[in-house]
Amino acid sequence: MDNPTPATTPKALWEGSGVRTVLDKLNAELIGLTPVKRRIADIAALLLVDKLRQLEGLQSQPPSLHMCFTGNPGTGKTTVAMRMAEVLKQLGYVRKGHLVAVTRDDLVGQFIGHTAPKTKEIIKKAMGGVLFIDEAYYLYRPENERDYGQEAIEILLQAMENHRDDLVVILAGYKDRMDTFFSSNPGMASRIAHNIDFPDYSEGELMQIADLMLERLNYHFDDDARAAFAHYIHLRRQQPHFANARSIRNALDRIRLRHATRVLEADHALTREQLTTLQAADILASRVFNSGASH
Predict the structure, then answer these.
(1) Residues paired with 70 in a beta bridge
(2) Alpha-carbon distance 81 to 43, whole Å?
(3) Which distant-in-sequence residues (6+ apart) come within 8 Å of 65 by Cβ?
């Protein structure tokens, strides 16, 4: 076999595809998640090799790209789905590369005849891109014989099979509940080619996430505030309803509220440093430090 021309070398395809830019963006947006990022890069590599095989006239069948993202809330599943849509667009596997994110309520109607048009309309909006269904296990409620979720599942299954060249479906949710959902819906399980688990963030990673969020808003911790927030993270992770990066974002919103209240008590002009620096007092006022409430 002749050597590939420079335009069709793997490196040239990789560089020309724009995928590296998308993956770099993902790295900049999300702290940690190394196994997830590696898996996304592997999928991109698989698709590029498929393109090379086509160029060489080898047997090529577009790989199934429907996926399942499992993990706790706030671990970056929606963000990764958005970047996956961009990767697929760059490589020519979908036309538009947009993301349509929905839940059960967007797909399932409450009355006879409502579910099919709702589900079909969402599929129509997602064509050419990625349909992201969060907490997908709520589509299936076997305990309610008058539930219409099964109708939505059947329409989705048909779309996943018939439009696999222009629609990628990503199901997301807690791992144990998704496992139960798949065991009850083998047709759906058989169409999922990639199962990617999103781990919880470590305390160090959560601090990095906080720093990144604050930097984007032109805030920063002073040394005492940094120590106080590290303690906050340690306590908050042990409480119910902790949602990783989402809980960190909510905590920072409340800290900024306390900071604003504090600095407005000043009877002098505020400096740039005062407007941008969060202090320990802004954090230690949280009920997390005394009552165990999630604030």
Answers:
(1) 173, 197
(2) 13
(3) 43, 88, 93, 164, 168, 193, 194
Nearest Cα residue to 99 out of 131, 124, 142: 131
- Concatenating the DSSP letter of every residue in the chain gives -PPPPGGGSHHHHHHHHTHHHHHHHHHHH-SS-HHHHHHHHHHHHHHHHHHHHHHTT----PPP--EEEEE-TTSSHHHHHHHHHHHHHHTTSSSS--EEEE-HHHH--SSTTTHHHHHHHHHHHHTTSEEEEETGGGG--TT-TT--HHHHHHHHHHHHHHTTTT-EEEEEE-HHHHHHHHHH-HHHHHH--EEEEEPPPPHHHHHHHHHHHHHHTT-EE-HHHHHHHHHHHHHHTTSTT--HHHHHHHHHHHHHHHHHHHHTT-SSPPPHHHHHEE-HHHHHTSGGGTT----
Cβ-count burial 223-232 (b if 16+ within 10 Å, e if not): eebbebbbbb
Distance from C-alpha of 34 to C-alpha of 172, rounded to nearest angstrom:
19
* Burial state string for 106-119 with b = 16 or more CB within 10 A and e = fewer than 16: bbbbeeeeebeebb
Q: Are the C-beta atoms of 89 and 99 separated by less than 8 Å?
A: no
List the pLDDT tens digit at each of the 295 positions of the chain: 445 454 567 777 777 778 888 888 888 889 999 999 999 999 998 888 888 888 888 877 777 899 999 999 999 999 999 999 999 998 888 999 999 999 999 999 988 889 999 999 999 999 999 999 999 999 998 777 778 899 999 999 999 999 988 999 999 999 999 999 999 999 999 999 999 999 999 999 999 999 999 999 999 999 999 999 999 999 999 999 999 999 999 999 999 999 999 999 988 899 999 999 999 999 999 999 985 444 5
Cα gap 276→215, rounded to integer Å: 10
